[in-house]
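Morning run. Coffee first, then this:
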Amino acid sequence: MIIPVILAGGSGTRLWPASRKSYPKQFTELVGARSLFQDTVTRLQGASFAAPTIITGNDFRFITAEQLDDAGIEGASILLEPAGRNTAPAILAAALRHEATPDAVLLVSPSDHKIAHTEAFLEAVAAGEAAAQEGHLVTFGIKPTAPETGYGYLELTGAPELGKPQELKSFVEKPKKALAQQLLKDGRHMWNAGIFMFKVRTIIEAFEVLAPRLVMPVRAALAAGKDDLCFFRLGEQAYDRCEDISIDYAIMEAAEALQVIPVSCGWTDLGSWRSVHGASDQDAAGNTVEGDALQIDCKNTLLKSNATDTKLVGLGLENIAAIATDDAILVANLDDSERVKEVVAELKIQAAPQAEGFRRCHRPWGYYETLSLGERFQVKRIMVKPGAALSLQSHFHRAEHWVVVEGSAHVTVDTDVSLVSENQSVYIPLGAVHRLENRGKVPLNLIEVQSGAYLGEDDIIRYEDVYARAPEQQVA
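And here it is:
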């Protein structure tokens, strides 16, 4: 039985504005109707696989649980890192979590990659399992189709044979264009997919020999960890002592006789808008048009709009990516799409809210989004999922007025409890202890009008919370 270990804690910026720190690309529908995370966990289901272990960050815990539920994935174990420490500590934590079954095989996979041909990938996984059972550390090499400079490469000792374990000769860091072209020609180099297989005991022993400095703090983080709803929180102080290092540097590049499974499965890490364009359906002129977008006389262009009230139109464009969201638009030459992180860096310098966050803010109970903001007022749309409830709370600086536009709201204001239906409203005075619940079977949507001297999200006292969020986490 293979235990999938899914790494879902990244917060990449290379696909801004669709991917941001608050809601990164693994949880976003970039290619197809499901998120990359949902594609990953769904791919690793079936008779050969046990329930997955997911490793993510505290900020993404409820997004992870919700997307697992939406994908119909049951029995997953979700480990929460107090802070990102790269892949080596995360993978070691997952391995030690399964230390009681030392001969179990772990399949470690990023959650933000695209694999077009699942059957070919699973055939490679079966070959990797056999090699892992023999005590090998196994990685997967992707047959290159272009001289990519954004990937690391794996040099094999001989010509690759798809689906058959082969010895690794060396790792090659992300190359310059000329070297990438040379690596493509020689036929012995594969892209490094960052996907690994090994037995629990094999990888723990490898850490004890090659990276012993990580073993003690990760063990301590597990020992100090605690269950929190459906999550397991690693101990913060111990985990903070872990070195920030990848599994490649900590283990793989120092390991002996590492085996590679060559595979051709339509893999891409979707690390740029060019790669998204390449992985998407295109018309005869090479155009990809998604969402509320239109192309006229364009060629080799990606037009993608997630904006609800904005029509994106491309006229006479060539080799362009134009990406629209509700609060930002990116227009870039596809050849420059690797530089999008420079855009994010500049937006951070400008303190632009679009650098890291979206207008829509996801919460365990649903989401809210700001519709209008003034000096002393704010108008929000709030959606509460069926069966969900906001915390029992009060505010120092603002009063609120709720107007229900869909569904029914169960509202507590101090000692008064009422049912507020569509086209009805309720007033929450400043300082009142209140709670909003959706006890119905359909989503609850309401418009909230805030007024007061301060409208920040940290103006809250939390008294009770069904999601076990601490009072000091000052977010409704």
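The chain has three domains: 2-268, 273-349, 360-464. Good start to the day.
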